[in-house]
């Protein structure tokens, strides 16, 4: 469901994107081509800053936001999800937040007040709060990274994880095309 926010902003969605009928996309949201938005996802840009302004939530091309994901932003701060990025089931991305290109965010992970570099893999049930990740970092499952976390203690992305991330992107590209075809069958 696409809907206007109280400030009057309405989502901008590419005709080449697929949004499940149970998803809610509200307000100043931009969804680019070949994006998959799964069942029960909520992407909501409706809070304003102290000046009554807000930045958009942008989901860039070829990315996927899977089942039950919530993307929101505090006080109108910007959220960007880069190209070819996967946000897995039931994750929370809360702005201010920038997630780079070719990133995988695992099930139930939470990101807040962070910048995640290109090519990073954040495994399942992890929390990143106030800690920026450089390109190609691997955050193992269940880790909690805060502002004082020593990034030298976590590994870089290995080829197997990069291949896994690419396979998730490929599967979701197929779903965009398949569901768009089904939505035209009545």
Automatic annotation (TrEMBL):
Domain of life: Bacteria
SUPFAM superfamilies assigned: Trimeric LpxA-like enzymes
Protein name, entry field: DapH/DapD/GlmU-related protein
């Amino acid at each position: 469901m696409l809907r206007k926010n109280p400030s009057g902003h309405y989502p901008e969605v590419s005709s080449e994107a697929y949004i499940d009928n149970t998803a809610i996309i509200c307000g100043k949201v931009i969804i680019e081509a070949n994006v998959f938005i799964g069942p029960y996802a909520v992407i909501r840009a409706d809070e304003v800053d102290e000046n009554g302004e807000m930045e958009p939530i942008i989901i860039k091309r070829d990315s996927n936001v899977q089942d039950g994901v919530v993307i929101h932003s505090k006080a109108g701060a910007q959220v960007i999800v880069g190209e070819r990025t996967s946000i897995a089931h039931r994750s929370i991305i809360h702005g201010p937040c920038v997630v780079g290109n070719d990133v995988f965010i695992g099930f139930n992970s939470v990101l807040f007040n962070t910048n995640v570099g290109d090519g990073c893999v954040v495994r399942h049930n992890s929390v990143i709060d106030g800690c920026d990740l450089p390109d190609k970092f691997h955050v193992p499952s269940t880790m909690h990274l805060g502002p004082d976390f020593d990034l030298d203690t976590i590994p870089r992305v290995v080829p197997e994880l990069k291949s896994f991330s690419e396979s998730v992107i490929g599967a979701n590209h197929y779903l965009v095309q398949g569901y768009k075809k089904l939505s035209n069958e009545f």
